[in-house]
C-alpha cells in the first residue's frame, strides 16, 4: 500500500483524523497566535494509544507556522526567530549554565538537505571560550558547542555513533538536533518549524531508516528542530489522484457501480498508478521551489537565531550578531 | 487551459501526435544509435506548417538520450561527450579558424538553473592567447571565448543586451548558448541533451518570456545546447490526473453518462484542479532528483567536454584536460 | 630597479615624499574625521606635474581608514558604510534619476581577488523593475544594474570590451567599478577604502597591465572603488631589507666606507636580493591574513551597503536590506 | 628570540645543521628518486637525542618533493599520487582487512587551511557498505571511514575530543590525519608532501598549540600527512634580513667592529625588527600564491588519490574514480 510520508506531527494528526473520521486518542492540541501572522500549535502525545495512532513517541511537538514571504522580509524573520526562541526556551527550562551541543544533521552537498549544517555555521559557539578564557567571558554566557556529523554515505559512520562518541567526551546537558524534513503539504514547505522534545526517532518519516537520536541512544535529552524543505513527488501524485477521485465521488451515487469503482481505485490501484508515474527514475524525486538554495539559506538564519536566543537568554539578537561577526 | 511546458522538440512532437492523432506536418525524424545505450534523434522542422504545429522555428533539433547512470560512470560520460561533439561538429561545419563565443545562461545561485554557468567554467578559453601570445599557441587551436551573463534579476539587464554588446565588440563567427531546460517527462530529466541550430526562442518553453537569442537578435548563427534538469510540478499533477482518467475512460462505455463526465473533467476542470493543488505556493514548483547538486555538476562536465571536443577538432579529451589544469 | 607596487594614491604620495624629501607638485590633501575612529583623506591631483609625480591621472582620490576590527563589529561596519556613502554621494552629485551600472572586477575563484564579484551579489539591482513594472516601483528608486565581467583568463575577452559592449546597449549615466587592490603597507590591508573619480587606469598598480576603464574608453564617467586585500610578498621583503639598512645607516658615519656600502646595497643590490628570495616560485606571491575568506566577505558587505546608500538616497540601510531579502 | 616556524622534518634538520654546523644526533636520512622529477627523502629520528635536536618525536618522516607545475598536469599528479601511495603503503603494512579512519583537520572556510576537509570529500568511503551490504562489496575492498571534525573556533570542542569519541565507537585499526602545514621555504609551498608515523604532535609547528593526535591520545597508530600551503610572513621578513646581513658579513673583516655589529643585529635585534614590520596586524599573516584556491583543490586531489590507492591495494586509480562517481 502506498504510504504518504510526513515528518510533521500536525500532519500525522490530520491524516489520522481524515482516514479514521475521528481524532487520535490521547493527543491534546493547543493553539496560540502570538502575532496575527504567526501561529504556534502544540500537539502533545500523552499515552501509548496516541503513540500508536500518531506513529511517533510520547512527547510535545510544537509547530510554528510563519507567513508566506518570511524569507524576503528581515523584520518578519526576526519575529519568527523570537517566537521560536520562546517555544524552545519553555522546553529547555531556561538555565543559563546548561551545556548544550547543537547537531546539524544532513548532507551539506545536497541543498534541500543542507539545513542542519547551515544552521550549525551560524550557531554562537562558546564552550571553548568558557574553558580557555573564562575570565574574559561574561558568566551569563552559556557554554554551547556545535557539530555537523555528515551523513552515512560521506563518512561511512552512522550519525548516532559520531554523536554518541562526542557526547561521551564532552558531556553536554542537552542536545539540539536540526534537520531538513519532508512534509505532506506544499503549503508547509519552508513555512513551518517543528520543535519536539522527543529527539529524532527512526520511524518519524516513513522512508527514514536512520537510527534514533534520543535520550535512549544518547543518554541526554534531545530536542529536535526541523523545517520541511521538500514534499515527496509521490505525495503530489497521490494528491492529484485523490482530488480527481474526490471530485467524482461527490457526484456519484453512494453504493452505485461507479461509486464503488472509484472507491476501489482509491484503495487498490492508487499505489500502482503512482509507481507507474514515478518509477522510471532511480533516485528520490522531490518537489521543491526552484529557489531552494536561497530559501534554505534564509531558513537557516531564522533557525540559528532562534536557537541562539533560546540558549543565551541574557543576550538579544543585536548582541548575538555582534558576537558572531 | 492548462498547458504542459516542455523545452524539448522531441516532446513537442510526441505531444502533438498524441493530441491530434497524427504527426505534425513538415517534420522529419531520423534516429541513429552510435552505441547500444546512446540514441541520437534528429527532428527537422522543414516548413512553416511544422513551425506552427511544433511551436518552434524551422531548423534541426538533435536529441541525445544517454543511459540512466551516466553520471556515475566516467567512461560513459566520455562516450556521451564524444557523441555530442560529433553531432555538434556537423552543425558547426568544423572549421578550426572559427571564432566561437560560448554563453552560459541561467542563475548560478539556483542549482537546477546553474548548468550554463557551470559549463562555462569548464570551457577551454583560448581567444586571448591567440591574440596575446600567438607564437606560443598551436595554430590548430581555435579561438574560443566564454561568458556567463547572469539573469535579469541579478543584473537588471536583459541577457540579450549583454550578449549583443559583447558580440558587437568581439565579433565571433558562431555563438553556442548552454541552458538548463524543463522537460515534460521525468525519465528525460538529466538524461537528454538537446542541440539545435535555431538559437533560443522566446516561445520554446511556454512560461519562458525571455527574449530570443538567435541570428535575428545577435547577427550571428546561434547553436543552443540544453539539458532538462527539472519537470514542472504542474506536469506531474497533470500526468497523475490523466492516468486516473484514462484508467476509468478505458472502463466506461463510450458515450455513456460516466464517460462524458470523465471527458468533461479532462477538458474543463483539469486546469482548476491542478491550480488548487499547487496554487498555495507563490514560487515556481519543480520536481527534481534530491541529488540535483551532484548531478548538475556531472552534466556540466559532459556538456563542456562535448563542446571543447567539437570546437577543437585537433585535440582529444586528454589534451583538453591537460590544457585546462 | 625594484619598484614597490601600490594601488593607493595616499601611499603613492607618501612614497614620493619619502623618496624626494618633498611633497609632489599640484597635489592637495584634506583630512576629515567624521568619527573618532574613521579618517577620510582626500588627495586631489590638480595638474600635470602632480599627475607625473603621482603616476596617476588628475582627479580626486578619497581614502577612508577604518578601525582595526571593523569586520567583527556590525555597528562599526554600518558606520563605515555610511561614511563611504557620504563621500561617494559627493562625487556622484546625488541625482536620483541617474542610471548607474556597477561593475565588479576580479576573479571569483581567487579569494583575495573576489571582492568585486562579491560586492555585485549584494547590489540593489532595480533597472529591470523600473522598465518592466514602473507603476509598482517608487519613483524615488534609482535605476541600477550590476555586472561581474570575469577576468581575461576565464573569458578570453578583455574586461573593457565586455563593459563597453554592455554600456553601448544599456547607456548608463554613471559607472562604478569595484576592485581588490594591492597596498604597500600591511596596516592598510582590508582597512582602507579608496574612491576615485578617475576610473581605473592601466598604470595605477605597477604590475597591472589591464586596459583602462575610464571616461575615455567607456564614454561615461567612471568611479573606482577599491580595498587593498593583499600586499605583494616582494614589498615585505623590500621593507625588511630597508629596515635593516636604515638601522645600520643611522649608526654609520656619513660618507664613511661602511656608510657608502650600505647606500650601495640599497641602490644596486636590493632588487637582486628580493628576486633571490622570491624567484623560486612561478606565481604571484602575496601576503594576506589567514582569514582572508571571512574578511573579504565582510568587506564586500561594507562596500555594497555604501554603494546602495549612495545610489538610493531616499532609502536607509533597513529599507535596502528589506529590498534585498 | 624569534623562532622560525616549520612543520617539515626536513627543514627542521636543515635549520639544526645550519645553526649548529653539524647534523643532529641519531637522525638518519635516505633519499630515493623514483622518477627524475620526484624525490623521496626519509628522515628517521632514532633516539632521544634526535628527538631533542629535531623538536619532534622518534619516528619516520617521509618527504615527497614534486615538480613545480604538478598542479597543472594531470599525468604528473597521478605519478605523485602513486609515489605517495607507495610510501604510505610501507608505513601502513598493507593489510586489506585494516579498518582505517581518515581525519581531515583544518577549517573549511579558510582556503589555505582547507586541505584536510577537501581531501576527506574525495576519500573512497566503504565502511558502511561492508557493514550494510557485505555481499555486494568485493571482499578485497578495505573498510574506510572519513571525518572532518572542524576546528575549535567553529565547534567549541577540541579536535582530539571529537576524534577520540568517534574512535571509541568505531574502533579503527589505523588513523590517517591530513592537515595543511606551514613551511620555512617558499619553494616547498604546495610542492612537498610529508608523511609521518608519529601522528600530530603539539610541538610540531612552533605556534601550533593544538593538542596531540597520536597513539598516546587516541590509542591507535596515527599517520600524519601534510602539505605546506603557506609560509609565515615573519619567515619571509626574517629571510630578507638574513640575506642582507649575510651579504655584508661576507664583505666585513671577521672580528672587526662592523662585523661584530652585524652579528649583534643578527642575534639581538632581528626579532624586534620583524615585530616592527608585522606587528601592526592582529591576525596571522601568511605568504601564499595568489591562486591558492585553485592549488589547494589540486593538491587535495593528489593526496586523496594517494590515500585511496594505499588503502585499497586491490584497486587502481581508474577503479577508484569509477567508485567515486
Automatic annotation (TrEMBL), chains A, B, C, D:
Its EC number is 3.4.24.78. InterPro entries: Pept_HybD-like_dom_sf, Peptidase_A25. Keywords: Hydrolase, Protease, Zymogen. The keyword Hydrolase applies. One of its GO terms (molecular function) is metalloendopeptidase activity. It catalyses: Endopeptidase action with P4 Glu or Asp, P1 preferably Glu > Asp, P1' hydrophobic and P2' Ala. It is an enzyme of class 3 (hydrolase). Residues 1-7 form a propeptide. Autoproteolytically processed. The inactive tetrameric zymogen termed p46 autoprocesses to a smaller form termed p41, which is active only during spore germination. The keyword Hydrolase applies. GO terms for biological process: proteolysis; spore germination. It holds the Pfam family Peptidase_A25. Initiates the rapid degradation of small, acid-soluble proteins during spore germination. Homotetramer. Belongs to the peptidase A25 family. NCBIfam families: GPR. This is Germination protease. It comes from Clostridium putrefaciens.
